[in-house]
Amino acid sequence: MSLEKNVDFSIQKAEKSKIGSIDFENVKFGSVFTDHMLVCHYKDGAWGQVEIKPYGPMSFEPSMNVFHYGQAIFEGMKAYKDENDKVWLFRPRENWKRFNKSAERLAMPHIDETRFVDGLKALLQLDQDWVRKGEGNSLYIRPFMIGTHEGVVAGPSTEFMFCIILSPARTYYSGKVKVQIAEHYSRAANGGVGSTKCSGNYAGQFYPTKLAQEAGYQQVIWTDDTTHTKLEEAGTMNVFFRIGDTLITAPTSERILDGVTRKSLIAIAESKGIKVEVKSIVVQELLDAHAKGELKEIFGAGTAVTVGQIEGFAYQDKYYALPEVADADAYAIQLKTALQGIQQKRIEDTFDWTETI
Amino acid sequence: MSLEKNVDFSIQKAEKSKIGSIDFENVKFGSVFTDHMLVCHYKDGAWGQVEIKPYGPMSFEPSMNVFHYGQAIFEGMKAYKDENDKVWLFRPRENWKRFNKSAERLAMPHIDETRFVDGLKALLQLDQDWVRKGEGNSLYIRPFMIGTHEGVVAGPSTEFMFCIILSPARTYYSGKVKVQIAEHYSRAANGGVGSTKCSGNYAGQFYPTKLAQEAGYQQVIWTDDTTHTKLEEAGTMNVFFRIGDTLITAPTSERILDGVTRKSLIAIAESKGIKVEVKSIVVQELLDAHAKGELKEIFGAGTAVTVGQIEGFAYQDKYYALPEVADADAYAIQLKTALQGIQQKRIEDTFDWTETI
Ligand SMILES: Cc1ncc(COP(=O)(O)O)c(C=O)c1O
Ligand SMILES: Cc1ncc(COP(=O)(O)O)c(C=O)c1O
């Protein structure tokens, strides 16, 4: 791996690694960070040097743009280590492309592939001991960009910081979840920012999710904000429905994130001969299928959990349980196993999705 | 002014004031900050000490919540100095209440009136030399709250920082602006966060505003995201339409901010015998009124400019100019003069809106 020559690049190593103090078996998701981070500043219309340096706090003005006007976008991806201690990324250029789409919509600058992908690889090489092998182990990667210009004028920032931080993760089996279909609140507007990974989308979801949790449901299935009938996402994941033996998921739109997991699952399902329909699906179809006994599975799809099974949903104060499906018959499990197998290099990557650092 | 006894409170004065170096006549809005700021941290379910200390940078973790999940809300208000060097605030408790409404919707903690209003007054007492008297001079006040918890788990922060920073402002006559009616993009969803002052709302507006500006319009008139026909806000202001001699403004809703300027203008207009209709107004009504020569004025209302006159609007690639209205006949000017007169203590405040520090 080498950075393109035109990108200036510096590495300052941490004096001492923290790795010895980490209890990798019991690490809480997103709470511990590796020894290094990548930082790059945008100023006067251009990105500067890529700095890889010890992870740690930074100094910011209280007037800086992101605190007031919310220019902040991020990505979420994972690195895995195979049996030969080689570190692998899963479709990282998809995240890079999506990052730039988010940037565009949030009036932030694009970042080049070299700084994003090659910069990440350089960072991972330095912190590769933090990627642990064995099933369920991964290193969560969080690239993000924030508006850093000082001053409280409501307009786009002229200065930005791009940063990548890394956090060791363990996939634990969190159990199936109960969800509530959104009847009043929503996460995205037509012509809004729902298809981007901007920070504001998440802050807006917390309150309705809290209300759902107080009512006994772990997540919300988000619906379109106009009719509250179209089933669009589940929590911070894309969502799939299995009716009969057909897998249905909404088409991506301005309101729905174009998930890397979602499109990978669609490709895997199709390669296994599972019929996939990418189409808008409304609550009534779900209720009808449930009444006929045809609604077999619902699951969320996203980088953090890969596939998250749902055991039932609430709608208009009524709870609808899904049938028990044996693991061997569950699309959720079949697809999860296949996807994680590819990601973790246990099975052949016929899709050419993985790349080493 | 004194703080309630149960709020712990510390003041650390700046060693030297920066005030001598400020060119108050030419200061750019929101770019210069006073000597002090107010900072208060929320932790373990409670707000701590109110610290008033020198304005300056702070140290934050790159993993902190606001950079990733966007929990950030703010307020905007102004202080004025009268001829007797007394400093006045305009309806500050309305901002405090709205701040807490924003907090609720963004799953952030409420803050008490003592920390917000009395804290602000204590800060202003210290920096009162920064409030300059004379027409057009004011001190812009920016209270804000951000999620400061470290760690990239998509959920509400458990720690927060409340902060108030102050910036000297001069109202300059920026001229009338041309606006574009939003036909595709939108700032707010039904069931979303449009009625709050959360940072994410602003970041989402920048790109559509940039497109409007590239087409020759300074601002966007936002419409509902479902039909794109209801006229809801103008830029970051509420919006008023004068048809014949009636003033029309949309009712506040989940999509529209309950502006302090808006409601003050409604009260002033009514006290002057101007007919005000608070009702949803659609594009077609505007086009019809324009065709009949009855559309006389459009203006935005917000703390930053008080009243911002609009000279014409674009819709479906056609530009509609508004008639020239003499200042003496313009509701915009009459209302602006009355409101600024009250705010700056030049005319009697019969509404009891102003309070001293
Ligand atoms: C709102 C939302 N939808 C869907 C996803 C799934 O996207 P991906 O599969 O790329 O992680 C995410 C991120 O995980 C998300 O934040
Ligand atoms: C979106 C939006 N609408 C309207 C307003 C006007 O509110 P206020 O009059 O309280 O300043 C503001 C803030 O200035 C705003 O940000």
From TrEMBL, chains A, B:
Look up keyword Acetylation and say if it applies.
Answer: no
Listed CDD domains: BCAT_beta_family
What keywords appear on the UniProt entry? Amino-acid biosynthesis, Aminotransferase, Branched-chain amino acid biosynthesis, Pyridoxal phosphate, Transferase
| Top-rank EC class of the record's enzyme | transferase
- EC number(s): the record gives 2.6.1.42
Annotated pathway: Amino-acid biosynthesis; L-isoleucine biosynthesis; L-isoleucine from 2-oxobutanoate: step 4/4; Amino-acid biosynthesis; L-valine biosynthesis; L-valine from pyruvate: step 4/4; Amino-acid biosynthesis; L-leucine biosynthesis; L-leucine from 3-methyl-2-oxobutanoate: step 4/4
Q: Where is the signal peptide?
A: none
Give the matching InterPro entries.
Answer: Aminotrans_IV (IPR001544), Aminotrans_IV_CS (IPR018300), Aminotransferase-like (IPR036038), B_amino_transII (IPR005786), BCAT-like_C (IPR043132), BCAT-like_N (IPR043131), BCAT_family (IPR033939)
Molecular functions (GO terms): branched-chain-amino-acid transaminase activity
- Pfam families referenced in this protein's UniProt entry, alphabetically: Aminotran_4 (PF01063)
The keyword Flavoprotein belongs to this UniProt entry's keyword annotation: no
Q: Which NCBIfam families match?
A: ilvE_II, PRK13357.1
* Role played: Acts on leucine, isoleucine and valine.
Q: Which PANTHER family does the annotation name?
A: BRANCHED-CHAIN-AMINO-ACID AMINOTRANSFERASE, SUBGROUP IIII AMINOTRANSFERASE
Record protein name field = Branched-chain-amino-acid aminotransferase
Please tell me the species this chain comes from.
Myroides pelagicus
